[in-house]
């Protein structure tokens, strides 16, 4: 009798293209428990089956050799509750990489201007090149001072948020 041959493990699927972030699972669970809790995603953002948000790629000026530059994403995520007393909007996020770390920023105002506010700091490593894409997996996010204000002080500056994942086309 021949031993059963083990089938090769299929490689893990690539994450969705764009920036995928769940913000903070406990925050979204809280919102979903409110009688008037609301979550929406539009204009390039979508809610994945996992409950995370995925923002579409919108261009980059990232240099993989130097590990520096900007990745731009489009989308509008809104989280609201308490009869309008709580409202969080994540509009057109960017990740700005500099010497060994990154900053997650969002558009303020109408989203078409250059006004931006930081939401968190990222602890990053070099991306992996996977099937023609640059992929950053399990990127740690710590809320910034301005990010703490965005969440009405519910998360202190430096507090860990959910990790994010980035997948963008690699440049030749």
Provide structural commentary.
The protein is mainly beta. The strands form two sheets. The chain has an eight-stranded antiparallel beta barrel with strand order 1-4-5-8-9-10-12-13. It has a three-stranded antiparallel sheet with strand order 2-6-7, with helices on one face. The protein contains two helices and 13 strands. It is globular and about 50 Å long. It has helices spanning 25-33, 145-150, and strands at 18-21, 38-42, 45-47, 53-60, 69-74, 76-81, 86-91, 94-98, 101-107, 116-123, 128-130, 133-143, 164-169. It has one domain. A hairpin with an 8-residue loop joins strand 4 and strand 5 (69-74). 9% of the residues lie in helices and 45% in strands.
Summarize the structure.
This protein is mainly beta. The protein has helices spanning 25-33, 145-150; strands spanning 18-21, 38-42, 45-47, 53-60, 69-74, 76-81, 86-91, 94-98, 101-107, 116-123, 128-130, 133-143, 164-169.
Percentage of residues in strands: over 45%
Query: What's the overall average pLDDT, rounded?
Result: 89
Distance between the termini: 51 Å
Please state how the strands of the largest beta sheet are arranged side by side.
1-4-5-8-9-10-12-13
**Which structural class should the secondary elements be placed in?**
mainly beta
How many β-strand stretches?
13
N-to-C SSE series? EHEEEEEEEEEEEHE
| Form type | globular
Q: What's the helical proportion of residues?
A: under 10%
| Low-pLDDT sequence parts | none
Total tally of structural domains: 1
User: Largest sheet, if any?
Assistant: 8 strands, antiparallel, barrel
From the alpha carbons, calculate the radius of gyration and give it in angstroms.
18 Å
Report the total helices. 2
